[in-house]
Design a protein that fits this description.
Elements lengths: L2 H8 L21 H4 E9 L4 E9 L2 E9 L2 E10 L4 H11 L9 E5 L12 E6 L15 E2 L12 H4 L14 H13 L2 H6 L3 E6 L5 E7 L2 H14 L9 E4 L5 H9 L4 E4 L5 H9 L3 E4 L7 E4 L6
Helix pairs in contact: 3-7, 7-8, 8-9
Length: 305
């Protein structure tokens, strides 16, 4: 691991106080046991049958609510890996256009009602008084899977309207630095190392320093956790940053990067056609099939030099 990565994983940083953590550093995933479930299995090979324990990524529902001017609204239920739930909720609401900008969140908390059946799986985001809030945007279906955050929208227009102006900044990355990022991402994927079952999103600066890492069963959740952390720290827009995702680059991930003001997105998998068209429209750099040996640039090639 490079020294810049190690420093990012060990340094102190601010965290939302209401969400318990074992680590005070938001660049480090929550306690590994929080996202890992150990269960007995029977493993078969061509030569032997063996009973042993296996470790799986945890997937549980999270209900997100918004509190605006004294009224509470249920927004959505998403399947996620527990950990950084407050960031996930804030980032999700940002992508829905329900949290308009940094500085509008008063607090993030769990339900305080003792009769709440599963408070650990509920997060409430309270907006500051007078913050513009549009309940009509809640017309989306209440359930989203861990693989689809866009499913249930009434129309594509409702997706586009939350995208701001073009992301700014980022002088560029060298090809050699870019090719080094997938291996560095894998080195710090703690839960993936144990389970092989999580997506990851990581934020790097122009020098290649790792700033944030988040893991989740849903790739869009991992990006929401990044955006949520940045919003809570009032670091949006994230100009001059690159977002690396462990899977493919879908339209929704490009959209979330645009919302976060992130000018470059790289993926180890393939982009979709709509992801490429969206990146080009917003002037983003989009890289796909990133590996230590090669990568493709689909948009914004001027930033890679």
């Amino acid at each position: 691991m490079l020294e810049t990565d190690r420093a990012a994983l060990e340094s102190d940083a601010t965290e939302v106080p209401e969400e318990p953590r074992l680590s005070a550093n938001p660049a480090v995933p929550d306690s590994i046991t929080k996202g890992v479930w150990t269960t007995p299995i029977v493993r078969h090979t061509a030569a032997v049958r063996k009973e042993l324990d296996d470790q799986l990524a945890v997937e549980e529902p999270l209900e997100m609510r918004i509190l605006a001017d004294g009224f509470q609204f249920r927004v959505s239920v998403t399947m996620r890996t527990p950990g950084h739930d407050f960031e996930l909720a804030v980032g999700f609401l940002l992508s829905e256009g329900l949290v308009p900008e940094p500085g509008t969140v008063a607090r993030v908390f769990r339900p305080e009602d003792p009769h709440e059946p599963q408070p650990e799986n509920v997060v409430i985001v309270e907006l500051k008084p007078g913050t513009p809030f549009h309940p009509k945007r809640l017309s989306r279906n209440v359930f989203t899977s861990s693989s689809c955050g866009i499913c249930g929208k009434n129309s594509l227009d409702s997706v586009w309207e939350v995208c701001p102006s073009r992301p700014q900044g980022l002088d560029g990355f060298s090809p050699d630095l870019l090719r080094s990022l997938p291996d560095r991402l894998r080195e710090v994927q703690a839960v993936f190392t144990q389970t092989g079952g999580l997506h990851a999103a990581a934020l790097f600066d122009e020098s290649g320093k790792l700033l944030l890492l988040r893991e989740d069963v849903g790739r869009h959740n991992a990006v929401d956790k990044i955006n949520g952390r940045l919003l809570l720290d009032e670091q949006l827009p994230a100009s001059g940053r690159l977002l690396l995702v462990s899977g493919r680059a879908s339209f929704e991930l490009v959209q979330k990067a645009v919302i976060g003001g992130i000018p470059a997105l790289a993926s180890v998998g393939a982009p979709s056609s709509l992801a490429v068209l969206t990146a080009r429209e917003f002037g983003m750099t989009l890289v796909g099939f990133l590996s230590p040996k090669r990568f493709n640039i689909y948009s914004g090639a001027e930033r890679i030099r």
